[in-house]
Amino acid sequence: MITSPYPPAECGQRLERVTVKYRPRQYSVARAGRPAPRLRGQVSPARVRVAQPLDYSRNSLVPWFDGVLEMAPDGGTILRGTVGLPSASLPAFVFVSAVWAVVIGALLAHGARTLAAGNPLQALPPLLIPCGMLAAYAVVVALTPRQLRSQTWQLLNELSGILGQ
């Protein structure tokens, strides 16, 4: 929850001024009379769905804020919602994990068969490659939550700055 001393209509305008709806590669295109976009997504009176522009140099995860602007009891605004990865990204994560599991399983089975056939040198690559793949997967799984938390805080700080906190 983010609060602002400004009324909801002004908060919506502030968010619209710095939000662009174009594709990621078009974010750098200047829009006449408007500041450089700080967010991408959609802002309407009924819904705020925004994220920070993609940073291809860091290949980072980009969480989205999905919420609403509400009138606060003191006359200001409350921006209430959730932050997280888009639900559409879940099938891609499941698919990639399933493919990795099949590849690792096939390589381990081939290595075990080759080792059982009495060819230890030929069994070495199919047994070592899955170990490297599992190590890489473990690193990704270990670092993803930290990176997501960092990106989430950056997005929330950006929203607080835009709304005049």
Describe the 3D structure:
With 165 residues, the protein is of the alpha+beta class. It folds into two domains: 2-86 and 157-161; 89-144. It is 48% helix and 18% strand. The protein contains three helices and six strands; from the N terminus they run E-H-E-E-E-E-E-H-H. It has helices spanning 8-17, 90-116, 120-162; strands spanning 2-4, 19-20, 39-43, 48-51, 64-71, 77-84. The chain has a six-stranded mixed beta sheet, covered by helices on one side. A hairpin with a 5-residue loop joins strand 5 and strand 6. The two termini are 12 Å apart. The mean pLDDT is 86.
Features:
3 helices, single chain, alpha+beta, 6 strands
Question: What does this entry show, briefly?
Answer:
With 165 residues, the chain is α+β, with helices and mostly antiparallel strands. It is 48% helix and 18% strand. It starts with a strand and ends with a helix.
